[in-house]
Amino acid sequence: MFTTNLLSFTALLALSTHTLANGIPVVVSPGLNVSSNPNVTAHIPSCTNLTNNAPSPYCYTKLQETAYLTNWNLTSPEICAPDELWSTCFLRSVYGKPGPKCTTLTNDTKTCEQYNCTSLSLSTALCPEPKAANGTKDATAQAAEEWYGAWNLYALQHHIATWSAALSANTSVKAILAAVNPRVPNTATTLLTTLVSKHGLGTATNADAALVKLLEVPTGRPEPAYGNARVRGESSTLTAAQWQLALRMRLGQVLDLAMGRFGDFLGAVKGGAYSARGLASVGNLTRSLEDD
Ligand SMILES: *[C@@H]1O[C@H](CO)[C@@H](O)[C@H](O)[C@H]1NC(C)=O
Ligand SMILES: *[C@@H]1O[C@H](CO)[C@@H](O)[C@H](O)[C@H]1NC(C)=O
Ligand SMILES: *[C@@H]1O[C@H](CO)[C@@H](O)[C@H](O)[C@H]1NC(C)=O
Ligand SMILES: *[C@@H]1O[C@H](CO)[C@@H](O)[C@H](O)[C@H]1NC(C)=O
Ligand SMILES: *[C@@H]1O[C@H](CO)[C@@H](O)[C@H](O)[C@H]1NC(C)=O
Ligand SMILES: *[C@@H]1O[C@H](CO)[C@@H](O)[C@H](O)[C@H]1NC(C)=O
Ligand SMILES: *[C@@H]1O[C@H](CO)[C@@H](O)[C@H](O)[C@H]1NC(C)=O
Ligand SMILES: *[C@@H]1O[C@H](CO)[C@@H](O)[C@H](O)[C@H]1NC(C)=O
Ligand SMILES: *[C@@H]1O[C@H](CO)[C@@H](O)[C@H](O)[C@H]1NC(C)=O
Questions:
Q1: Statement: the pTM of the whole predicted model exceeds 0.85
Q2: How far is CA 40 from CA 34, 47, 65, 72, in A?
Q3: Is the distance from CB of 60 to CB of 8 less than 8 angstroms?
Q4: What is the pLDDT of residues 36-76, one digit of tens each?
């Protein structure tokens, strides 16, 4: 149950010193308190009922999740280790431990694997889906905000991992090759943009559109571009299997960006694009790709 396992951020702030997963003690000071904003508390109880009607884009907005996360980001440097991903630090702070199997805050990474939402794996072991069960029927605004933060990390990681798995299927090869534009240089980004736009399932929250926007975040260096053999002067082409690898690598890079750079994450989840259940399944996406 979420609340029972949850060392609230309030409690974390109340600690004058706090020992990080790597053993570095840090001084923690309180920042702004979004949870005490009357515009937030006015929307208790509906959005603090974290049973089966959560999450929703409506509550993402009503809980002022963007403001809460921004406030968390502004105070996080004080509770995060210098080399720790913000997403890992966030999960550690809301769950009150460094990883799912850890029992205390400890620097022993051998016995306790840390939360990690950067893997393209569909396993939820290190990037867990926060549970909405009995214990979270009437959470405080702050606990609900923490729950939404953990939910959005899970949902974004899972959505990208779902696309990665679907695009890796052999039956998706035809759709991938069809997305290669013979007239322009093609990159993993241009192909993903085409494929996600064309074969996305049109979720109510526009999660696929948010993913396409995330793909627009500059990589920092030029992406390799591949032409088409039919175009004169463009001899380099990729096989379907090479494209699949390139798409997977690019999705992994996008995931790394979102989990490591707070602003990129916020850009994707703000507005509630990922505040929904069942955004897509591998089976449904694979079928959509197969029907090209
Ligand atoms: C954590 O690391 C510090 C410094 O490296 C060490 O002194 C301490 O014993 C470690 N604590 C645990 C619980 O392993
Ligand atoms: C934020 O405000 C709420 C409601 O007033 C209060 O219960 C909570 O302790 C405050 N948290 C912090 C970190 O000050
Ligand atoms: C609450 O919302 C109103 C209307 O949007 C706004 O004018 C006011 O500044 C908000 N109050 C706080 C504390 O954010
Ligand atoms: C929370 O939502 C569930 C599902 O809609 C509902 O059955 C339950 O009565 C609600 N609980 C509270 C405390 O509002
Ligand atoms: C997180 O997972 C990724 C992918 O599995 C891995 O490369 C990385 O080393 C992990 N990071 C930590 C801190 O465990
Ligand atoms: C909620 O608690 C009741 C009583 O403890 C139990 O019967 C029910 O199965 C629980 N529901 C969920 C969704 O955990
Ligand atoms: C997918 O295609 C590769 C290469 O053509 C082949 O070796 C592999 O057996 C196929 N996998 C499945 C599950 O059909
Ligand atoms: C988050 O914090 C980092 C520094 O820790 C800062 O560079 C960045 O601008 C912050 N992002 C937002 C959206 O506040
Ligand atoms: C998958 O497709 C089925 C049938 O169209 C639909 O009922 C189901 O909700 C879809 N699931 C997801 C996760 O998209």
A1: no
A2: 8, 10, 9, 16
A3: no
A4: 666 655 555 578 888 767 899 989 988 889 989 998 998 88
**Average pLDDT for 232-237:** 57
Same domain, 40 and 130: yes
Atom 10 in ligand 9: residue holding the nearest Cα: 284
Q: Which amino acid is at 41?
A: T
Mean pLDDT for all residues in the chain: 81
* 119 in a structural domain: yes
46 Cβ inside 6 Å of ligand 2: no
Prior bond to 82 cis, omega within 30?
A: no
pLDDT at residue 158, as a whole number: 97
d(CA 262, CA 74): 10
Torsion angle defined by CA atoms of residues 128, 129, 135 and 137, in that order, rounded to the nearest 10 degrees: 150
Atom of ligand 5 nearest to the CA of 109: 14
Residue numbers of the domain that contains 123: 12-144
Residue 254's nearest CA partner among 172, 173, 196 is: 196
**Residue whose CA is closest, atom 5 of ligand 8?**
77
Q: Is 186 helix (H, G, I), strand (E, B) or coil?
A: strand
Angstrom distance (rounded) from CA 231 to CA 63: 53
Q: Which residue has the tokens 């939404």?
A: 148
72 with 171, same domain: the answer is no
Written as one letter, the residue type at 245 is: L
Range with lowest mean pLDDT among 7-11, 25-29, 65-69: 25-29
4 within a domain of the structure (yes/no): no
